[in-house]
Amino acid sequence: MRVLCPACDAQYDVPDRLIGSGRRLRCARCDHDWMVRPTTPAPVAPEPDAAPGPALPAAEAGELAPQRLAPRPPAAGSRAPVGGLGLWLAWLASVGAVLLAVVGLWLFRAELAVAWPPIQRLYGLLA
Ligand SMILES: [Zn+2]
Questions:
Q1: What are phi and psi of 93, to 5 degrees?
Q2: Does residue 32 have a pLDDT over 90?
Q3: 88 shares its domain with 121
Q4: What's the gap in Å between 70 CA and the centre of ligand 1?
Q5: Both 59 and 88 in a single domain?
Q6: In angstroms, what is the span from residue 119 Cα to ligand 1's centroid?
Q7: pLDDT score at 82
Q8: How far does the centroid of ligand 1 lie from the alpha carbon of residue 81, in Å?
Q9: Tens of pLDDT along 87-124?
Q10: Domain that holds residue 103
Q11: What proportion of the chain, given as a percentage, has pLDDT over 90?
Q12: Would you say residue 112 lies in a domain?
C-alpha cells in the first residue's frame, strides 16, 4: 500500500500485512508519526447486532511501536547523469561515424557522381 506522510508528503510502499487493521508509522524524513489505516477495510465477519466484539490485543489494535521507514528510492525518470568513460566513448563513436561518412563521400566521389549527379555541385564547392 502506498502511504503518504501527512507532514512532508514523503511516499512509502508499505506491505499491507504490516499495516493490518491499522498501524502507527514514523516518517524517516521528518520524524512525524501518524496512524495509517488500510484503504480497503479488513474483512469482518457480519455482525447484525452491532455488539462490540472481544477486545483486540494491543498489537492488533494498531498500538504497535512506530516503525521506521526508509524513504523510497528516486523515481525511475530521474536517472543518474552519465559521466566519465561512457560519455567519452559516446562522443568518440559519434565523431568516428561522422568522419567515416565524410571519408566515404570523398573516396567514392566518382561512383557517387555517377549514381547521383547533383552531388557534383557539392564536390565542386569543396575542390
Ligand atoms: Zn514526513
A1: -65, -40
A2: yes
A3: yes
A4: 11
A5: no
A6: 65
A7: 59
A8: 27
A9: 999 999 999 999 999 999 999 989 999 999 998 888 88
A10: 84-126
A11: 35
A12: yes
Residues 37 and 68 both lie in one domain: yes
One domain, residues 59 and 92 = no
Say whether both 37 and 88 belong to one domain. no
Find the 34 Cα to ligand 1 centroid distance in Å: 10
In a domain, 78, yes or no: no
Greatest mean pLDDT range, 16-20, 100-104, 123-127:
100-104
The set of cell numbers assigned to 93 is 563513436
Cα 98 to ligand 1 centre (Å): 51
Shared-domain flag, residues 69 and 93: no
Q: How many structural domains comprise the chain?
A: 2
DSSP the chain: -EEE-TTT--EEE--HHHHTT-EEEE-TTT--EEEE--SSPPP----SS----PPPPTTTTT-PPPEE-PPPPPPTTSPPPP-HHHHHHHHHHHHHHHHHHHHHHHHTHHHHHHH-TTHHHHHHHH-
